[in-house]
Prior knowledge:
Number of strands: 9
CATH superfamily: Electron Transport, Fmn-binding Protein, Chain A
Number of helices: 4
Order of helices and strands: HEEEHEEEHHEEE
Strand content: 25-35%
Structural class: alpha+beta
Helix content: 25-40%
Low-confidence stretches: none
Number of domains: 1
Amino acid sequence: MANGVLTAELADxxxxxxxxxxxxxxxxxxxxIGRGVACRIDAEGRVRVIFRExxxxxxxxxxxxxxxxxxxxxxxxxxxxIQFKASRAEIVHLSPSDGPAAIRQARAFRVELVxxxxxxxxxxxxxxxxxxxxxAAEFLPESAFVQTPGPSAGSELTP
Length: 159
């Protein structure tokens, strides 16, 4: 999938209900960071990041202006982290499957946060969203990197 950058195992990992951090840059070249709610990956390896639109206006602007994208997926329990990068992404309309995926993944992420010691109220607030707030960006990963802390951090994943 995705030119050999994305394996089925990585796709499952990214869609399992974990932390999703998005990054790009604005027209001045300054970093723009956002937080995703969920992710969906199709059979061709296209990554669709679902996020809360009101909280990610600057990120949306950067993507709409054809800025590059990087998205990091992290499992809090193990700190396993993978990052995908692409030279561009696009803002896309939500599909009927995006809402249920966001609900399922946000619930799983909340459970994960509680399992590592976060207070239930904090975890619930952090993963909360209203369905009408959701938007999505989609891209085909061009490269992938290990971001798990340790000696392999920053190393590129190759097909």
